[in-house]
């Protein structure tokens, strides 16, 4: 049986200009891919955790989902075709033992979106989770409220290898947390011609949504047999 958890949260993100940035931040994957890997590994290094590397299959799945959200102006772990994060990662050819996904909309750059995720328990858990590989993606649309759409895919595999960029060892500097609020507000997220709401919240200017999920496969039959054998030997 696979385990699946999803949470949708809202964070007040203060931009340098004090308003939404309307222009596309990155035009090439290479513009943000190394920055995202570096920031994720800085956070993991600060906790004494193993560093991640880039996997192009996870990157492909992440880019497809960010492009889908931007094209259809929604933010969700379920794609416009009904796909789940695990299904998208599998469709990209990644042989996973565990996968997790973070998504976000509205944050204009890597620093802003990572600050938002790290200040959310569920997303922070994925970033600091028991994974070895990362794929990240950004997409932009000039239509709609959020314009900037982000996806992170984390993977753990017994067979997949790192691609291109490898883990870095830079230690994390001091990072100032963004301003947050927990007012009684009523926020909404556009989703494929429908609206998903968080109870007792409304969305003022500057509120950007983000969400996280994770999936893991159960232990293999071989592992189960080994565990049963050990129990029998101890009796």
From TrEMBL:
Keywords: Signal. Residues 1-18 form the signal peptide. InterPro entries: CAP_dom, CAP_sf. The keyword Protein biosynthesis does not apply. CDD domains: CAP_bacterial. The keyword Signal applies. Residues 37-154 form the SCP domain. Gene3D superfamilies: CAP. It comes from the Eukaryota. This is SCP domain-containing protein.
